[in-house]
Amino acid sequence: MNTSRLEYLKNVKRIVVKVGSSTLTHSTGLLNLSRIENLVRQLSDAHNRGIEVILVSSGAIATGVGKLGLKEKPKTIPEKQACAAVGQGILLHMYEKLFSEYGKIVAQILLTREDISHRMRYLNASNTFYALLEQGVIPIVNENDAIVVDEIKFGDNDTLSAMVASLVNADLLILLTDIDGLYDSNPKTNPEAKFISHVKEITEEIIASAGDTGSSLGTGGMITKIHAAKIATSSASSMIIVNGDAPNVIKEILDGKEIGTFFEAQNRPLKAKKHWMAFGTKPNGNIVIDNGAEKALLKSHKSLLPKGILSVQGTFSEGSVVSILNSKEEEIAHGITNYNSSEIDAIKGLNSCDIEKKLGYKNYDVVIHTNNMVILK
What is the pTM of this model? Predict the structure, then answer.
C-alpha cells in the first residue's frame, strides 16, 4: 500500500465528490435509482464521520432527456437547456428526498464559469459554500445548464468539480466514473494497457496516456479528468479517479484502500486567490512596468507601486484581474488591481505619497498588492 496515499487520506476533512451522467442514469437516460440511493448512503455515512461533503452532480440534461422521452441527447443548446430545466428539478427532488431519510439537509448551487471568473462572485460563492458547510449542509452543485451559453460554459463537470475543490479548499476530489482509473493507454482498445494507481506529477506522458474514453451520456473523457487533476492538485487538493459502481467505494477510499488512480496534491500549491488568478479568469487589461519594478516583483516579491508603471493597456475597473507585462511586453504576472485603468494612467510614474495630490483621494499606496499577485514566469 502506498503510504503517502494512506497518510494523506487519514487527515481528510472536506471532500468534493463528482458523479457523472453515466453513473447516475441507465442507458435509457432514466435515473438509476439504486445507484443514486447507494451514493446518497455513502455520502451521508462520510458526513457522519465528521467529513464535510460537497456533491457535484451531472445528470440534469440526461434526466430531462429521459423524462421528455427523447431517443437521444439533443444537439442544440436551446434543446439541451430545455432538458436541463426539466431534469434539474427532478434530480434535486430525488436527492433531497433520499438525503432527508438519513437526516441530511441539502442545498442547490448552480454555477457558470462567469461566476468563477468574476472575483466578487467567486468570493460570494466561496462564502456561500462555507456558510452551508458550517451549518452541516451538503451542497449539491451543477453547471447552470438551463441558461448557460458556450462562452461561459465549464464544458464538463470534471472541470467544474476541480474549480469547486479549489473554491472551498477541499482536501480531496473524488471523480466517480464508469472506468477504474487511468491506464497508460486506452484499455477499451488495448488489452495490454497497464493501470496507473499513483500519479505524483502530471507529466506529458500522463497527458498522452489519457486518450479519449467518454461515454454517450457524458461530456468528459479521460483528458478532461487529467485537466481537472491539474487544477485540483495545484490548489492542494488530491484527486482520485475511480469506478463509481462499487457499493462502498467512498468508504474504501477514505479508509485508504488502494483503488482508482490517486493524483497527489502539489507540495507547494498555489494559494486559493492566486490559483483563481492563474486558472479561473482571463485578464481584463495590461499594465506595462519598467525594469526596476520587474526586478522588485520577481526577485523580492514586492507589491506593484505606481512609480514603476510605464503604461496601461485596455479599460478596466478596480478589482479587475490584469496582466502585468515587462518593458518588452512579455507577460510576467497576473494581479488584482486596486485602481481602475484611468486612475492608474493618471498616477503612473508617481511616488505613492503623490497619489492623493493627483487623484484627490488615495485608497491604497500600491496599485497591486503582492498578496493579490501570481507570478507566471
Answer: 0.74
